[in-house]
Structures are given as structure tokens and as C-alpha cells.
Amino acid sequence: MLTAHELFNLGLKYEQRGDMDFALHYYSRIIALYPQEIAPYHRLSVLALENRDATMALAWLEKGIQVNETVPELWNNRALALAELKRFDEADTAFHRAFELRPDNWEAYYNCGRMRLVQKRFADAEPLLRKAAELDPNSANTFNNLGLALHGLHRYDEACVAFERTLELQPKYIEARSNKGAALYYAHRFTEAEALFRQAIAQTPDEAAAHYNLASLLLSQGNLLEGFKEYEWRWKTLDWPTIRNYNTRPLWNGEPLDGQTILVWHEQGIGDTIQFFRLINDLAKLNCEIEVEVQPELHRLLIASTSLPNVRFHRSGEKLPSFDVHAPLLSLPRLLKIQYDTFTPFKPYLRPRGFEIDEWRRKLKAMTAANDRKKKRIGIAWAGNPNHPADHQRSMSWETFQPIVEANKNRFQFFSMMPGTAPGNPEVSDLGEHLRDFGVSAAIVANLDIIIAVDTSLVHLAGALGKRVWNLVFHTPDWRWVIGEEKTKWYPSMTLFRQKQAGNWGEVIQEVNETLALE
Q: Against a cut of 0.90, is the pTM above it?
């Protein structure tokens, strides 16, 4: 009979060859014949984790820990499996057990740091990744992740140093090069960032992340012609869905339409659809028929807002009519050669139904005490969709936003425009439960005097309606809010209140209060 060591070597040999059935056979034989051996439990857990089967990995690890609870590798893998299952508190406990068992356990510190990055617990991630870097100063991955933690803490110059160390260790680390460029961009070192992105493209022309990052930089500076050309690379980046394929129906590339039918489909968030919906009017001037697919929440409002005879709307998920060519909505600026300095003169392009405006005029009056009815009405939103990848930057807590209400409650009425999130403040009327779609939201906004909100779909809605809107934006906001501008050509009724220091909302709140005092 083969020894446990011989069986393990056979399993490892087949694993290295990629023959997992034989590898699993030999590891399972060890457990059956030599149940006190730890090594097969560890390898089986590794294989399960590599196969993205965290539940199976956890089952093997728990059996292994029952045999011997003093093996740090088992606790490290247990933590990884728990983290994959989003059982983060239990994963923390398992990582700390791995630290206790082996204080020089580089892998456990690194993995725990990465888990906290996923949770956007940047301040907690930093010391763990620094410890991992101390234990293994030659790990490029560690320095790259340390850079990401520092970026999340808005310490962009320090993040650049970490990414530079990554590239010293691994010069062809494409992600680190992209991350360094992003850190330079967020540090407002725009010339350096642009040079790095262009150098990356020159060296690796198909590096989608470099093209996408260059697009963001160019667009944030108002260079729409080149920016939207580079923005087409979004479809090839890792975090972007694949562009739609309609088999024999090609993408439109700007050629004359000559009476053809074009499908324009939404691709991103509701705010994006609102912002670029205006371009349907430009497209409609060409010789074509237009089918527009939009989010269901926007469908009623967009129909009410459009009277063009060659434009028809469809909810996402509905069966679409036949068409000849198609285009994603955010490709229209490139296809129509839109320039920031020469926009078509703006006029409000969303129009809620008149009867809904009247209905909400009555409802808001009924919700208001008689002695408050002469006050101006302000709609507010302090946070956006928590699933948005940059939500930790653009949103704030109610406690951070609340001083606006407290300082101005005697002069203004405040209405919360956040579905599903009530402020729990008696000075704020919560309209969230009424916001069933953007037709309703638009009718309410039409009855308000000012919108004050972070960068969400609400500010786009108000801007498209021509309503006064104060958009509170992060130090380096989304590319559409051109760097350095207080006003924006996208929406003339919008004023941008920008963070002067990354992450510092206090100054923004103070500026809003000072401006409200002049109303």
C-alpha cells in the first residue's frame, strides 16, 4: 500500500498536469486511509477555491481544522472561502487566527487586506497591506493593493509611490500602470496622467484600460471629440459588459442613414440616459426612423417629452420592432461629432404631463402647514445607488448633509427625493414612497424651487427640466462635470459645488449654506 506521502505526490503530479479527476482521487484516498493527514484537506480547499466553489472549500477546511486546528494555511483558506461567501465578520475571525498561529504569515495579511479593499474599508486595509509589504518587500501584488487602499483614502501622491514600487518589481504590470495613471488624475496631476496613458497606449495599443482612462481625462477637460473616440474602448475593459450583438444588424458608424431604422439602446444608469437623451433630437434631424430602448422608470416621461414623428420608445425587456442598424446611447456624441463649446443652444427637453404637475402642486400644498406655504421648496438627495462603483466618493451620510436642513429650516421647506431612504427628520417631508417612476419625480421637481443633491439621476432630471439644481460633487468627479467649472454646459440651470479637498464635504456644506443665506 502506498504511503500518504506517495499518494500526495501522485495527487500533486496530476494536479500540475491539469488532470483534476486523478488529483481528487489521490487526495481523497489519503483522507480515507490516513485521516490524520492535513495536506489533502488543504489542497482540496485550494482546488475548490480556484473553481470558485467556496462552499465546497469551506466543507474541506472545516474537516481539516477538526483534525488539526493549529495549521495557519487552513485558517487562511477558510477566511478566503468565507469572504467569497460575503461572510466577512467570520472571515475576519479566521484571518486573525491565522495571524496568531504564524505572526509572519504574509499571505494572511495580504488576503485580509484585499478583503477589506473589496469592502471599501480602506483605512483598515492599509496597515494589513503595509505589514504584508514588510514581510515580503518583493511582492508586486501587495504594493499594487496598498496603492489602491491609499487611493481610496484620497492620499493620491502616496498611492503613486506604491504603484511606482509595483512597476519597479514588475515593469509589465498593466493594471498597476493604469492605477498609477488614475492616481495622478485624481491628484489633479493631469499632464503627467495624460502622458502616462498615451505612453501606455504607444507601448500596448490594445490596452483598453489606458484608452478608457485617457477618455475620462479628456472628457473631464471638455475635449469631447477625442474623448468620446477613446471612450469606445469601454466595451473592452474588464468591468464593462460586452457590447450588444444583433447578429445581422450592424452597429451604426455615422454613415448616412438614408431612411433606415436605427435602434438606440440605453447602456448605463438612468442619469446617463437623461443626459444623452437630448441627442435623440439631433439624430431625428437625419433621414431615419428611430426606435429607442430605455429603462422602464423613464418610459412614461420620455414619451411625454417627445413629439417627434420618427421617434418611438420601448421599455427595456420588451420585444423590439425590426431595425437596420443600432447604436448604444453614449456612442451618439462621437457619431454626431458633439463638441462641448458648440452645443445646440439648450432648452429644457423633459416635460412632465401637465395634469401630474397640477396634482403634485395640490399634494405638496396639502403636505405643508399653512404658515410654511410661502417658503421656497427645496428637494434634497444626499446619497445615490449604493451599488454604483464610485458611490463611496459621490454620496454622503445623512449626518453629513443634515446641517443644510438645520441651518435653513426656518426659511425653506425641505423634501427628500430618495426612494427607500427616509432621513427620519421632522423638518424634512419624505416623498420617497411616491417616486414610482421618473414621470412622478419630474412632476414633483417641477413644483420645487431648487434641487440640492449629490451626483445622482435627480440632478440630471432637474437639469433636463431646466430647474435650478445645485450638484454637490467629489473633488475629482465623474468626467461629465468638466474640471474647474462652476457651471456646466450640459445643464445651464446647474451650479457645481465642488470639494476643494478630496473627501471633505464639510467645506461644500458650508458653501451651500452661505449661498442659501443669499436666497
A: no
